[in-house]
Design brief:
Arc Repressor Mutant, subunit A; 2 domains; mainly alpha; Hypothetical Protein Yqey, Chain: A, domain1; about 200 residues; 9 helices
Length: about 200
């Protein structure tokens, strides 16, 4: 079952069960997915029109020119598969959910600084619902093991090799570990190697 299907099933269940918090969070995820797909669709459509050199007619009142333009737009979008390509896959949806979790974490920190326990607790509850859709997050020790293996593989020998390690490691751990923690672990391991 895809994440999108899981969200739809969970939304139905939340509506049946009267779980307002889950319903609100799931709808927020689905809205974020739709907005992201719309931005992606617009970007892909723009590229498709440029590639196929489809230009808007100078006279928008010319029905024949407008009809030809609309037909050319449809053909360009179909040729480039814009509709299918604009749909987010599970990896993109996971990244979006992680972004929503990060926003909640930031909100919780701000609310706690401001002494607003009520807001912090509401954000924490929302974050818990969001995290249901994410894979289990790796522990620091698991990240260290992966980082050590990659450092040995690429022959990294100090902090100047951070880029050699971060790109591949971040890609391989995508969705399973926080980027900030990955960076911290790699920096620590590389600084130990230098000394």
């Amino acid at each position: 079952m895809s994440i999108r299907e899981q969200l739809q099933a969970d939304l139905k269940e939340a509506m049946r069960g009267g779980d307002a918090a889950a319903r609100t969070v799931i709808r927020a995820i689905m809205t974020a997915i739709k907005e992201s797909e719309q931005r992606k669709r617009e970007e892909l459509a723009k590229k498709a029109l440029e590639k196929h050199r489809v230009a808007r007619p100078a006279d928008l009142n010319d029905a024949a020119a407008l009809a030809a333009y609309n037909q050319a737009v449809e053909a360009a979008l179909a040729a480039e598969g814009v509709e299918e390509a604009s749909l987010l896959d599970d990896a993109e949806i996971l990244a979006l959910i992680q972004k929503l979790v990060k926003q909640r974490q930031d909100s919780i920190a701000e609310a706690e600084k401001a002494g607003r326990g009520d807001i912090a607790s509401a954000e924490t509850a929302e974050m818990a619902i969001l995290q249901r859709y994410l894979p289990r997050q790796m522990t620091r020790e698991e990240i260290e093991a992966e980082a050590r293996a990659l450092i040995a593989q690429v022959g990294a020998s100090g902090p100047r090799d951070m880029g050699k390690v971060m790109g591949p490691l971040t890609t391989s751990l995508k969705g399973r570990a926080d980027g900030k923690l990955i960076s911290e672990v790699v920096k620590n391991l590389l600084s130990q190697q230098q000394g």
